[in-house]
Amino acid sequence: MKLCVIYNFAQHYRTAIFRMISETYDCDFYFGENRTDIKGIDFSQIQGKCSTLKTYENKWFKYYYGTINLLFKKYDAFLVLGEERCLSTWWLLLLSKLFPKKKIYLWSHGKYGKEGKVKTFVQRVFFGLADGTFLYGNYAKKIMIESGFNSQKLFVIKNSLDYDRQLELRKKAVITSIYVNHFNNRNKVLLFIGRLTEVKKLDMLLNSLKNLKDLGRKYNLVLVGDGIEKEKLIEQSVRLGIEEQVWFYGACYDEEKNVELIYNADLCVAPGNVGLTAMHTMVFGTPVLSHNNFSWQMPEFEAIHPGKTGLFFKYQDQNDLTQSIIKWFDIYASSREAIRIECYKEIDNYWNPYYQIKILTDVIG
After folding, report:
1. Can you give the three-state secondary structure of 193-248, one letter per residue?
2. Is the model's pLDDT at 209 over the cut of 90?
3. Average pLDDT of the residues in 298-314
4. φ and ψ at residue 74, rounded to 5 degrees
5. pLDDT band, residue 8 (cuts 50/70/90)
6. What is the predicted pLDDT for the residue at 160?
7. Phi, psi of 79 (to 5 degrees)
8. DSSP character at residue 65
9. How far apart are CA 185 and CA 341, in angstroms?
């Protein structure tokens, strides 16, 4: 089988799954232009041919030039990022009906659950044109089926990071004095790793740290990452009088250092949507606390199993975020190693490229 993969751009964190696809299939990759600050893939790590498609994009739609021409090449199947606002993908889906032997599969978040009737109708047509859609989570599949989508064409593929590399590092991970040395205390450590952006609602986390301090509960907080909100968060920590409890570590692309930071933390707190942060922390044994409004979450929230791999708090409820941190440490965190093992199991069973490639081969062949 000759496979063609078309994706919005070549994100570095997807290297492992793209590499595994290239090792499994006779495959070519076509990526849109990367206009973000997200690190790109080193194409030499992928066996298939990798090309960049010239991209047009505005706030309403996007278009990848040259996509339609790929239908006339000797590809048996296409694996395409499923973006409803991508006009070139619409054309690909429509024109593929002239080539019945060529299969078109979409890879998408699917529905979040907050879409209106018009968008739901558009999505039903869009995904209905495909031979199948790979979804990141069971939640999306459930609400799509409830909205009238064909369940036989929906397949949950989860998500992954560089799992093999992370496993190697996990085997070497040990408890160190990194936080005792920095904070000069043995207080429990809260952590967030990811870009410091408004959607992550990290101001809520700082407010909770202040509230906890007022309740006589002092925690340390480590923010691993950079972003447009960093200066605001630093100013907020000073204004709240908790600056000595907060370590703005900065962005870290050295995974060996990230392992130490994550492995030695007690709880990852993601007040906004949790996304890849959940996988990054759980693979090294640290549970996650995030909000419970799944329509506004990223698919990785499904890795959180209350009391085992983390906890949920009421969406945008500052007091409940504070109380949920207390609840985690008072009720669930007594056995740190048992929690660590539960986190490992969740990632090892589902959120890795081996799970993903099995789903792909079961469906595509």
Report:
1. ECCCCHHHCHHHHHHHHHHHHHCCCCCEEEEECCCCCHHHHHHHHHHHCCHHHEEE
2. yes
3. 97
4. -85, 60
5. very high
6. 96
7. -115, 110
8. T
9. 26
| Cα distance between residue 161 and residue 310, in whole Å | 19
Task: List b or e across 242-272, with b for residues whose CB sees 16 or more CB atoms inside 10 angstroms.
Answer: beebbbbbeeeeebeebbbbbbbbbbbbbbb
Angstrom CA distances, 21 to 135, 174, 300, stand at: 17, 33, 21
The answer to whether residue 183 scores a pLDDT higher than 90 is: yes
Given a contact cutoff of 8 angstroms between Cβ atoms, the answer to whether 195 and 226 are in contact is yes
Count the Cβ atoms, other than its own, within 10 Å of residue 159.
24
State the CB neighbour count (10 A cutoff) for residue 322: 22
Q: DSSP states of 164-189 as a string?
A: HHHHHHHHH----SHHHHHHSS---E
Contacts of 243 (CB under 8 A, 6+ apart): 234, 237
Contact residues for 143 (Cβ-Cβ < 8 A; gap 6+): 111, 112, 113
- 148-154: average pLDDT: 95
Q: Which tens digits make up the pLDDT trace of 32-44?
A: 999 987 889 999 9
Chain centroid to Cα 337, Å, comes to 25
- Express the helix, strand and coil content of the chain in percent, nearest 5 each: 45, 20, 35
The pLDDT assigned to 352 comes to 98
